Amino acid sequence: MLHVVETGHRGTKGYQFSYLQESEDIKTEIQQLEDPNNPEPLIDLAFCRLYDHCFAHGFDVELFDILQTKFGYEAVQSYLTRRQTSSSEIFKAELSNINLLSDAKCWNQFIADEERVLKNSLGLLNFYYDWWLLGIGKEKSEPLQRMEQTGIMDRIDNTTLTEWCRFDAFYPAISFALSFIIYHHSDAEIIQKIALTNLEDAPDMWGKDLWLQRRAMTACVQRNGLKFIIENLGQIRYELIYYVLLKTDTTPTELKKLKEAILAEDEHPIQGMMESEHIIELMEKLVA
Fold first, then answer.
1. For the chain, what percent of residues have pLDDT higher than 90?
2. Coil, strand, or helix at residue 108?
3. How many Cα neighbours within 13 Å face the side chain of 81?
4. Phi/psi at 159 (nearest 5 deg)?
5. What is the rounded average pLDDT for all residues in the chain?
6. How many CA atoms lie within 13 A of 233 on its CB side?
7. What span, in angstroms and rounded, lies between the C-alpha atoms of 158 and 163?
8. What is the pLDDT of residues 225-254, one digit of tens each?
9. Is residue 126 predicted with pLDDT exceeding 80?
10. Does residue 142 sit in helix, strand or coil?
C-alpha cells in the first residue's frame, strides 16, 4: 500500500483507502478526501486512524473536528449508531459515545482505567485471531451458495455474507484495541500472532484485515528490529517484508543480515506477487 501512496495517484476509491491508511499527515489526508462518504467504509477507516492518533499522541479534538466537518454530522452519527448496534459489548459504549473523541475529560477518564481497557483489548484481539485468522467458528460457504446470496460467482471468497457483515461490525473496535495494545503494551504476544498469521481465506475487499496485519508487523519490527523478520522469515509474505522496509528505520547491518537470510532460502514457503529480487533491490536502494 505504501507503494501505491508513493506513486501519487488518487484516481480510484481504492487509492483513497490506501492514502487514508498510510498517510503520516492524517489531518491533511482527511481534508483532501473527495466524496468521503462513498464508499461508506471510508468513515470507519477515518475513525480507526483517529483512535490510533489519540493512542499515539494523546487526545486531539482538532482531528475529530476535521473528521466531522469532512464527513458531515449525519455520517458521524450514523457511524456512532452502528457501533451502538454491534453484537459485541466490548467497547460498544465507548465507541458509540461522541464525547470520547470530543471531550478531553471523557477520553482521559477512559484511558485512566487501563486495567479494564487492557483486558477488553486482549479479549477482543484474541477473539479476532481465533475467529477471523484461524477460522475457528467462522462460517464458510460454497460458490453456488454465494451465487444465490450475492449474484456473483466467486470461487475464491468462501466467507459468508453474514460473516462479512459481522467482521465489518467488529472491525473498528478491533482496530481500536490493536492501537491501544501497540502503544501501551507493545510486548503483548497477540501482536506477534496477528503479524505472523496469514489469511487463508480471501481478504476484505478494502484490505482492512491485511492493514491490521501490516500494523502488527510494523510494531514488531519497531520493537525488535529486523531480527524479528529473520527469525520468522518462512512465515512472512515478501509483500509484507517490502512494506515494513519502507515503513521502518533500519541499519545497514540489519539489512545485510536480512539479505543473507533471504539468499539462503532454497524457496520461500509463501508464494505471492513478489519475488526475493524485489526485496534485495529495495534493500540495496536503502543502503545506497
1. 73
2. helix
3. 6
4. -95, 135
5. 89
6. 18
7. 10
8. 999 999 999 999 999 999 999 999 999 999
9. yes
10. coil
**Which residue has cell 512465515?**
235
DSSP secondary structure string, 181-227? Answer: HHHH-TT-HHHHHHHH---SSPPPTT-HHHHHHHHHHHHHHHHH-TH
Nearest to 283 by CA among 234, 217, 230: 230
Catalogue the long-range contacts made by 49-53 (C-beta closer than 8 Å, 24 or more residues apart): 49/20, 49/21, 50/26, 50/101, 51/172, 51/175, 51/176, 51/179, 52/175, 52/179, 53/26
Evaluate whether 48 touches 182 at the Cβ level (below 8 Å).
no
Instruction: Report the residue count for the chain.
Output: 288
Cell 476535521 found at: 66
**One-letter amino acid for residue 49 of the chain:** R
Q: Are 194 and 216 in contact (CB under 8 A)?
A: yes
Higher pLDDT, 157 or 9: 157
